[in-house]
């Protein structure tokens, strides 16, 4: 491609390269500081770069281990029945380690490796000008030119080639022509198809695609379309804030992993605005600030994110906290995250982003200041997002706190959600106890179906039916209303209440309460049953589980859990699996209570965490159709009506 034809003002390739170099960051100076002050980051980067140099990568489908993907990679090869394998390979995220290793070591082999792969990709992936007129469906299919990959490459990895190699002799005029020709054709396509794919701007894909367009316009303002691309992208990202970030805090898809990803993407846009001297609106910055709190609320006291929907149980709240600092110059979210997440894990997550800091030295000093300095938290312990229909309630902001997330949103926002109406995730005494199973994979297979199914979540089923029909990995059947309609702090207990109509004519109400900082009380009220079996599932993060005539005990070296129930029905201990990260699962146990009922049925379940060998003694006595006396070191009365549960204590 003749790149001179793309430019607003005629100039030689050499002049364009000089102009580009003038706007690049001082990456060599960043590398010098990192080499002198962050040796562990240097070692990890070089180790990862060596694996990437050999063509060994971890990708979806490889089971969390490195696999040879070609050298250069086989860009068009789809493996393991997993589209994500091909898509993520074509994001070139391994280039980040190679390029950083080049800047840290000045070993040409790393830089030349990236150049070789980039030129090979350009030759292999024939991007033609007529592709801009392809049917819109083409840009959602499994190939390297899916719209999302067009966006991710052009904000996340290809610009790193400019930053790390652009100032050096490795980045020649000929290489600039090849680079810009390929990037231009990708963004030309993306500018047309992205707003058609996402007219409401209500998906994280549109945000990343706008970032790809924006980044290209900022690096190459000499392009004829640069101003229009920049204007479109800024407006598009502003639309994403309005469409995706909720007033209560939390990205609209309701998945903590994607929320933290969005905090990165929205925060990165602000970092770019600082660097290239433009601004986002006050409303944008206000919503970003409000939503950064959700990164903390969706963090278990154990320091791992609650893996609701297509999420992982990793400490990625750090990413939201980091971009709160980079975008808003506010380190409070980093400080609060450090209260729950080990410093080494914080550094591990931050290291993937530290080169994006405009002032690496200042960021490093902020991180050092986190060590041994607990941050005072003034945030409420009861959180309710009315849009996401999520309640997150905890007894405090320390690692031993009791905490649960409760969710009930129907219809769902999109298929990143799972079939988990009225499911919950419970942590206590430094141990994840009742867990959302997480994402595991995006493949169209039995694993995907299982991890998204209702019976893999801690909720109630009727006749073993999902709350709504699973059609495919990315498609559900029709859904009826389901919502959390009340969340309150009532002194010695905090409660959340929900219902859904997906089993009509049967209607299910569930109330969950943290009581006296020591136990979780759950009441399920189901009306309209007609000689149907009701199953209550609890997906436990335990492999040592035993059922006794009056209690289920789950034990570990960290902390134990006792489960009491009325009525005491048939109990089954079933295999379960929990996925903390993509493509990796570990053994767990599902507890299922089951029995047939007609009319209205009321179930009381009490979960008591404890440590040591002496289990708590709990006694449940029915006092009528919908009231109970409950003793657990103290006496309580639990009264259930149509839409509420109240708890009174004998000491009152």
TrEMBL record:
GO terms for molecular function: lyase activity. It is found in: Periplasm. Residues 398-550 form the Heparinase II/III-like C-terminal domain. Coiled coil: none annotated. The keyword Disulfide bond does not apply. Keywords: Lyase, Periplasm, Signal. One of its GO terms (cellular component) is periplasmic space. Its main location: periplasm. The keyword Secreted does not apply. It comes from the Bacteria. Residues 75-312 form the Heparin-sulfate lyase N-terminal domain. SUPFAM superfamilies: Chondroitin AC/alginate lyase. Pfam families: Hepar_II_III_C, Hepar_II_III_N. This is Heparinase II/III family protein. It comes from Paenibacillus roseopurpureus. The lineage of its organism: Bacteria, Bacillati, Bacillota, Bacilli, Bacillales.
